[in-house]
Write a structure and sequence with these properties.
Blueprint (H helix, E strand, L loop, with lengths): L8 H7 L40 H14 L3 E4 L2 H12 L5 E5 L4 H9 L5 H4 L3 E5 L6 H4 L5 E5 L11 H10 L3 E5 L4 H4 L9 E5 L13 E5 L5 H11 L5 H11 L2 H20 L5 E4 L9 H7 L6 E5 L3 H10 L4 E2 L9 E4 L12 E5 L5 H13 L2
Parallel strand pairs: 2-3, 2-4, 4-5, 5-6, 10-11
Antiparallel strand pairs: 1-7, 6-7, 8-9, 9-12, 11-12
Helix pairs in contact: 1-2, 2-10, 3-4, 3-9, 13-14
The structure holds pyridoxal-5'-phosphate.
Length: 378
């Protein structure tokens, strides 16, 4: 493909980052395993020198990601490695971060209490929590250096207005980061909506097979890439070549996986909302979702995650106890349908019977059948 930039996302995920069509070469170059590379004389004369600095397998995947995000990307060994790199490089000592209250639990912990005494706090950084509805954003953003958003949030699936909040943040002189893990760049484009940085845990739907952890950062202004790259090189938070290659291989099916997951999730959300054992179904694609209209404007489709409530922890245990296909597991976005009672971890502002359901790519009637069996035991 000559001009992938004008191709549809479904095409970009298949061809992005591929090597030129060389006779005898595979479609996707295999993983390159190297700590040192051959590098005689002047290091600048070798494209690769040492494995902590660069790796052609990362580069190929980063190239494919950049084509989806609309800005250059850097790969990290997990979503949290990507998150911590952004917080470490974009918040100056003494700066202020405004963080959406429903952001991913570990991100909130990292920002407010990581390491003894607080990592950011030790740098004099203040963290202010932004209510989920964005109320008082203007006041909270006064003097801030960074606004951290997540939409839809995991696991509550709250949707915030990225473009409007980004405009407010920019007016206050703050940069804007969006954790785009639940949507992926195929369903939502933070950089196009006005964010400066997108962070994604590639562990989830991006790669979708439940067999690796990775994360990436995309930036609108290429100048932001260098401090992130320096952080990655110095801290040594680098991805393994095997994981990077597996991710790139899995990326080709992202569009078809998401199509199926979104189709099934839309149908299942309606079905769950009408089920007598279930309350409080949350799915951005449901007309009853408080930010449905906003989600419809801001997202291409609504994703594969649904949350709902059963009366209590015992009810969830009875439901999970009889399901045969839906796995009880954390994480989401994969080809296998899974569900989890989130309150078993603590940390999220959810009730004891709150369930996060991640819709996989199995036939929707089989997923519905297994859920019906589970809910029948409630
Ligand atoms: C899982 C997740 C992360 C962290 O990603 P890891 O790959 O587990 O480090 C960050 N943000 C969101 C929204 C997530 O769901």
């Amino acid at each position: 493909m000559d001009d992938l930039r004008s191709a549809a996302p479904a095409t970009r995920v298949v061809h992005g980052g591929a090597a030129p069509a060389t006779p005898g070469a595979p479609y996707l170059a295999g993983p390159v395993f190297a700590a040192p590379y051959h590098a005689p004389g002047d290091p600048a004369a070798s494209p690769f020198t040492y494995g902590r600095f660069h790796n052609p397998t990362w580069q190929a995947y980063e190239e494919a990601l950049a084509l989806l995000e609309g800005g250059p990307c850097l790969l990290f060994p997990s979503g949290m490695a990507a998150t911590s790199a952004v917080l470490a490089t974009l918040v100056p000592p003494g700066g202020t971060v405004v963080m959406l209250a429903g952001s991913y639990y570990t991100t909130r912990v990292l920002a407010t209490q990581a390491f003894a005494g607080g990592w950011l706090q030790a740098q004099g950084v203040t963290v202010r929590m932004l209510p989920p509805d964005g109320a008082k954003a203007t006041t909270l953003l006064e003097g801030a250096s960074l606004l951290w958003l997540e939409s839809p949030t995991n696991p509550e699936l709250a949707v915030c207005d990225i473009a409007a909040l980004a405009a407010q943040a920019h007016a206050a002189g703050a940069r804007v980061v969006v954790d785009n893990t639940t949507a992926t760049p195929l369903l939502q484009q933070p950089l196009a909506l006005g964010a400066d940085v997108a962070v994604v845990s590639d562990t989830k739907a991006m790669t979708g097979h439940g067999d690796l952890l990775l994360g990436h950062v995309a930036v609108r202004d290429a100048a932001l890439l260098e401090p992130l790259r320096t952080w990655r090189t110095r801290v040594g938070a680098i991805a393994g070549p095997m994981e990077a290659w597996l991710a790139h291989r899995s990326l080709a099916t992202l569009d078809v996986r998401l199509q199926r997951q979104c189709d099934s999730a839309e149908a299942l959300a309606e079905w769950l909302a009408a089920h007598p054992a279930v309350r409080g179904v949350r799915y951005p694609g449901l007309a009853s979702h408080p930010q449905h209209a906003l989600a419809a404007r801001q997202m291409r489709r609504f994703g594969g995650v649904i949350s709902f409530e059963l009366p209590n922890a015992e009810a969830v245990a009875r439901c999970f106890g009889v399901m045969r296909m839906v796995r009880e597991a954390t994480s989401f976005g994969g080809v296998h349908t899974s569900a989890e009672r989130r309150a078993r971890w603590g940390g999220d502002a959810v009730g004891e019977g709150f369930v996060r359901l991640s819709v996989g790519v199995e036939a929707v009637e089989d997923i519905r059948g297994d859920l019906a069996r589970g809910l029948g035991a409630v």
